[in-house]
Amino acid sequence: MNVENFTIDYVSDQLGLTWKDPDIVEKVKGAGFGSLEYFDRKHFFRLKVNEIKNQYPEYISNAPKVVLDVSAGNGIQLEIMRMLGHGIMGLDAPNSLFSLLACSQGIPIIKHNCNNLPLPFSSQSVDLLTNVGALHFYSVPWGDVIKEFMRVSRETICVFVSKGDIFDRNKHILDTFKQKGWKRIPLSKEYMYKWVKY
């Protein structure tokens, strides 16, 4: 796969626009969680294809790697990474109904509360670790979470934080975070952080 061929339409054709288990979709919707766009696969394909192309394009054409999405939600990012040939796994809170969507698509999800460190992974056990729109939900210090991500990953970490008051109050922690052996790569948005091992 090359970057030019990696499009929303290609992903939609490969993965399909319907969930495999409509009963799970109705169960999650019925519990009152999330807006309807959270269940819109094409909407999420658009978000995730753009995210991958713009923030970690090296994983489009890489040889197979191991990808971990922490707080994986509906699992669409992992579906796409699996389609690209990578080994995948997700981590999500034990009470996350959204992870039912991921599981219904055959995404392996490990149940774990991210406020309990360490994470249930051995050191340097994954290549790419992502955490999108979830860090602001954790009650543990952000610096401790990033250190733990760096323990688990052997190549790349991407953390995208939801904008708002919590981010504004804690942004300085991520902006100034340093860890020996890791280098921060500037990304296009202030709430997007990427570190790579050197």
Fold blueprint:
Elements: H1 8-15, H2 22-30, H3 41-55, H4 58-61, E1 66-70, H5 76-83, E2 87-92, H6 98-104, E3 109-111, E4 126-132, H7 142-152, E5 153-160, H8 165-175, E6 182-185, E7 192-197
Parallel strand pairs: 1-2, 1-4, 2-3, 4-5
Antiparallel strand pairs: 5-7, 6-7
Q: How would you describe this protein?
A:
This protein has a seven-stranded mixed beta sheet with strand order 3-2-1-4-5-7-6. It is globular. It has one domain: 3-Layer(aba) Sandwich (Rossmann fold). With 198 residues, the chain is of the alpha/beta class. The protein has helices at residues 8-15, 22-30, 41-55, 58-61, 76-83, 98-104, 142-152, 165-175, and strands at 66-70, 87-92, 109-111, 126-132, 153-160, 182-185, 192-197. It has eight helices and seven strands. It is 37% helix and 20% strand. The longest helix has 15 residues, at 41-55.
Brief account:
With 198 residues, the protein is α/β, with parallel strands linked by helices.
Kindly list the characteristics that best describe this protein.
198 residues; single chain; 8 helices; alpha/beta; seven-stranded mixed sheet; Rossmann fold; globular; 20% strand
N to C succession of SSEs: HHHHEHEHEEHEHEE
Largest sheet: 7 strands, mixed
Give the C-level CATH assignment.
Answer: Alpha Beta
Quick one: CATH superfamily?
Answer: Vaccinia Virus protein VP39
Shape: globular
Briefly note the structural class of the backbone: alpha/beta
| Radius of gyration computed on alpha carbons | 16 Å
The third-level CATH topology is Rossmann fold
Number of helices: 8
Total of domains: 1
Low-confidence stretches: none
